[in-house]
Amino acid sequence: MLRAVPPDFFADLEADFRVDVAMLLRRNGRVLAAWSRTPLSWEVVSIMAATMVGSLETMLEALRSVSPQQMSVVAGGNRFLLQKVEPQALLVLVAKEAVPESHLRDALRRLLARMPPPQGPPARQVTLGPSVREPRGVEWPSRRGERPTKNP
Length: 152
Description:
Layout: H1 12-15, E1 19-26, E2 31-36, H2 42-62, E3 70-75, E4 78-86, E5 89-96, H3 101-114, E6 138-139, E7 149-150
Antiparallel strand pairs: 1-2, 1-5, 3-4, 4-5, 6-7
């Protein structure tokens, strides 16, 4: 599970005049962090971004393809770069179509480097007990359903 990102997580994008929208969201569309140059309806944008990823994954599954970690979509004069950051979270960047994809990938790489490490349940230690051995003199039959026999 993703830890909370710092309040200034998207601060580097303020000086990058080519990225217009950035958001970190759950796969259900819940916004974890967001930034935009202009006001917008985060509810609509985040849910539609999550839906777009789900639709692309479903289509790829139907085509018997693997679901990618990163997706790039160009539509309506915009370029979207979506990155899975964990099974249930996405990082989304949006820029004008004229912005090279390589620029968005660089911005994405910088943001990923600032991501807090995933928070999960503490690692469980498994201690294996002594191996189980059959008692002396017991032989197991090779066929199923038979009971073990005792040898004298």
